[in-house]
Amino acid sequence: MNNKKSLKLIGETFGDLTVIGRIEKPENIKTDIPYWLCKCNCGNEIVVSGESLRNGFTLDCGCVRKIKSSRPEIL
Ligand SMILES: [Zn+2]
User: Fold this and answer.
1) Which sign, positive or negative, has the C-alpha torsion 42, 43, 47, 53?
2) Which residues surround ligand 1, an ion (CB under 5 A)?
3) Could you tell me the distance, in angstroms and rounded to a whole number, from the CA of residue 23 to the centre of ligand 1?
4) pLDDT tens readout for residues 25-71
5) What's the confidence (pLDDT) of residue 24?
């Protein structure tokens, strides 16, 4: 069992997502990256790859995508 590092993700939050557990990767996925079941603040549960979480590609179930515009933020 060398999953200690990745299991640390459980309970972590990424944007609106909270990691609630690790799942078996979908059958059609060939890569060896872990997949996680995450709960969005809106109540939806989605499955996200560990990479997407770490890289910030997936920060919600899609419900707040409309807030994220392609417009650069003016500081
Ligand atoms: Zn959501």
Assistant:
1) positive
2) 40, 42, 44, 60-61, 63
3) 19
4) 777 878 788 899 999 999 999 999 998 999 999 999 999 755 555 66
5) 81
The mean-pLDDT minimum among 13-17, 21-25, 37-41, 70-74 falls in: 70-74
Structure tokens at 8: 């640390």
Residue 40 lies in a domain: yes
Domain annotation covers residue 75: no
Distance 64 CA to ligand 1 centre (A): 6
The pLDDT score that the predictor gives to residue 2 is 46
Rounded distance from Cα 1 to ligand 1 centre (Å): 32
Count structural domains, the chain: 1
Domain that holds residue 47: 3-70
> Does an H or E element contain 54, and which?
helix 50-55
- Euclidean distance between CA atoms 41 and 18, whole angstroms: 8
Ligand 1 centre to CA of 4 (Å) is: 28
